[in-house]
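How a chain folds remains the central question behind the approach discussed here. No coordinates are needed to read the tokens, only the vocabulary itself. For completeness, the protein is quoted in full, as a sequence line and a line of structure tokens:
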Amino acid sequence: MTLLPIALDAMGGDNAPAATVVGACRAVRAGIPVILVGDQDALRPLVPKGVSIDIVHAAESVGMDESPSAAVRAKKDASIRVAARLVAEGQASAVIGFGNTGALMAACLMELGRLDGVHRPAVITTLPRSDGGQLVVLDLGANVDCKPEHLGQFGVMGHVFAQDVLQIKDPRVGLLSNGQEDGKGNDQVRAAMPVLEGMPIHFVGQVEPTDALHGACEVVVCDGFVGNIMLKSVEAAIGVAGKVLKEEILRRPDAKLGARLIRAAFRRYRKRTSASSIGGAFLLGVKGTVLVGHGSADPTSVMSAIKVAHTAVQEGLSDHIGAALSEALNPTSNDDT
């Protein structure tokens, strides 16, 4: 089966366009077609000789300090909006952005639209749990302020994602909070409890971050402000742990010898915990495959995100999850009456 190329906003991200171009060229060499979207005068000189990659010119881009919705509306030729438009027009199979998350969501809402029944799309990814499983977390930044009904829908989205992607038959869904006891949480959390309890999911109530990461649930729901902080805190903790461990190993010669014996274990640890190995998170709730990359993405992260998007397109993930979400959020009777 011949797949359409991945549309990549080459101008977004802290290290763009150099990192995005290098990562995209690696993907092309691996057999994954990619379209670079951005200023062609800036992009073309970065493409190595011998690499055939399409460039779609976009004269504008959205900065990290700009108001996402206003900037995307005003800049119809912004690279992220052009990339999303390529998917809407059937010229690309997926869109990836490493810049302003709000701008990516706004562009996809304008060009692709929401799935039926979805009020707010959500950024969703997985984190490694201590028991060997994976924790689905949403929202990770698409919606800073959420109403209780939005969190209820996030619970359904996470439930469907865990079933379809992780193949978990009956995933447990928790609401992120500062405690499990009644009365814990802020006004938003307390108001969201009855909403989630009424959803067609296995809801287990409020969970603390520590319990969630130790296996108390397969899905944890929160607003984008809290979720983004949680994700960055986990990433920072993983980085600190690795740095401290390296310092302690280098402190003693005998420790260096022991480290050589468990080198393979360290490599597996980095693979399980590295953001570069994952590449990006899905924007769930829009009509199409959309990946949100880390703002500090390097070429490895860009390549990983392209591979994840390519696999998702191959498996028809967007259509599958879209149908499941539509059924869960818009239940219809099978009766003829």
Confidence is low (pLDDT under 50) at residues 333-337. The chain has two domains: 1-118+285-319, 122-275.
